[in-house]
Amino acid sequence: MNRNKLIELYTKKLTGEATLAELEELSALLKSDEEQAFLVLMDTWWQNTPSAQSDLSKEEDQHFNKIISTATADEIIEQANIPNTLRFKIFSSPKTLFIAAAAILIGLVFFVGNDLFNPPSAKYHYNEIVAKRGTKSKLILPDGTQVWLNSESKLSYNTKFNDSIREVTLDGEAYFDVVKDKKHPFVVKTSAISIRVLGTAFNVKSYQQDPTIETTLVRGMIEVQKNNEPSASKIILRPNEKLVYNKPEASIIKHVGQNSAQISNENQLISISSLPKNIADSARKETSWVYGRLIFDGDSFTSLAEKMERWYNVRIVIKNNNVANYRFAGVFENENVEEALKALQLIAMFKYTINENEIIIEK
Fold it and tell me: Are the C-beta atoms of residues 343 and 333 closer than 8 Å to each other?
């Protein structure tokens, strides 16, 4: 990243002197490496020492001075759109104005959902965290809630996250360990259902391309509601229960042991099943991925291939229908993709070829 160019473009944006082309260039620089951009800007302006500005050119210095001379500390803080919990107590001294200007940089870079990335007309500004294919991420939300993101997953939340309701939107799979806060319920929104909790641990699997949405409760209690029926009765889940929502619509079938109760609507289905108790999260199929284990139990080769594609960041093509219907049970933990395929060959007969990131499965 070109450090001086980043600083020059950023100061021009803050003073309103940047051209459209310069704004587009700045946006591209920040989006290419947001974390590095944040560190560069922090290092440049946060520390009020001569060395912190030693790399600034005279022109860049003038831009920065213009920010200070044309805005009060309160205006700078307001422009940064920084939540009340992170605002500084500002006085009129040059030093605190310097810190206030630095606050802009934090507000505009760290809070990703600002007007640099979103149109000014947007009602809310959003932060977005992505776990790319073949990777996993762990993050801590502003309230202290811990979230593990599985491969090819995206989590977003707005900058007013903790004002009244703690709401996040999920596309993909995530495990949540939610900090209890009775005054601020925690809600996970997926494409079709919303999950509301006060303090609990649960897993949600909601990939856009999958035919189902799943949520598995580890501890606590959660309530599930269909997004398009806010007035409908909520579904309550208790520990060791798993809900599966079949897209695009659903009704309820609840199974507890041999008993079942059904409320049916045409072409709609939600199923809730009881899972075995006294099983460690690392040994449970629904949550084992958090511990670096891919458990499959009776999966067809087609279904397993989809999981392996996300797990190993590969593309798998099965060219034989009989092979596609093979069933497998087992665990992948430290194996690479080729070792995993060789292990599967011990269970069923098939051939494979690997061409970079593409794997062809044949009879």
Answer: no
